[in-house]
Amino acid sequence: MSDSLRTTGPTTGSTPRAAAGLWPVLLCWVAVALDGFDLVVIGAVIPTLLESGDLGFTPAAATAASTIGLVGVGIGAVTIGPLTDRFGRRRSLIACVTAFSVLTLAIPLAQDVTQFTILRFLAGLGLGACLPTALAYMSEHAARGRGGSAVTRMMTGYHVGAVLTALLALVLIEPWGWESMFVVGGVAGLVTVPLMWAKLPESEAYLRAVGAEHGSATRKVRSTEVVKGRYLRVSIGLWVASFMGLLLVYGLNTWLPTIMGEAGYSIEAGTSLLLVLNLGAVIGLLVAGTISDARGNKPTVLLWFGLAAFFLALLSIKMDSTLLVYAAVTLAGIFVFSAQVLVYAFVGHLYPPEIRGTALGMAAGVGRVGAIVGPTIGGALLTAGIAYPWGFYAFAAAALLAVLALSTVPAHMQPE
Which among 114, 226, 348, 373 counts the fewest CB atoms within 10 Å? Predict the structure, then answer.
């Protein structure tokens, strides 16, 4: 399949009325911010649970609860795709946010570790389904030629949600207990649901695709085609890239302060560098989408992963200048985090609306496996006493593997 093949692209040419609507942009951003909340909340409450002994938590139980929650997110991402392609983006997103919010509110009612872990898994199912649905909606809501920037800007909600959750933990946990964090997260989601019901229209690109499907005698495109025929090779390349991307995101967020500590930097410096890393992520998301829209999805995502590999490898070199260290970590954050999001934009570009939700769900679901593997690799290297510099070598290698996988994916797909 030649890279020169042209695409119909995502059917992003919304009407002026739809393209000008700010409510869909805001509501999808909030849905993604809930994902950022979930990234941080378990890490924020675990120290209190371990110190207090509430629910019978042990370090092993805390690890299991964290991991099983991520497993739920991955399963939710994979299973929602065919449903959102069948029932629509609007209803799917509202149902997912409702499920996540209600189950998150139920977590403070848990009587033991087992109930806590089960509720985290079930809430993860709903949360995991939110991201691919919001991605599909936003890629279709964007004006033609602006899909990349629409997706990357929406994903800033992920990091804003994470930062706000960390700040809330400082304010809420000591006076109100760990339960207050889940109450706030659940209430925030439930407040969003009626706004979605009132202000979130169905994706016009999805409606046009469904209408054309029902109104013509052409062959129906089925969700299973994501893993069949000409799409199989495309899907595998994108899955590998998504896996490697989230391996980097979660691996670095989990272990960067510790690895920098192994390199001889202070604990305070390591924590500050984690903040700088995520600040770089927001900058990268604001820039990457615009460049992708101007230069094309494939060349941009290849460049982004390549530069991520370079700056991650650069961090393996001990630097005497604090300014250089902060600059290198900022640049790593700029390229690592937005590279992962550019994969989602690329998925939205290559698949037709009839199977776009399934394609995004599969990419996000496989990526969530990488989210589990990344911290595991970092932990194994730390246990072996070689986290520095081999942690950065391993992460740089993951970025290069993403480059190799994406090089097999065509820049465009031609409709059959």
Answer: 114
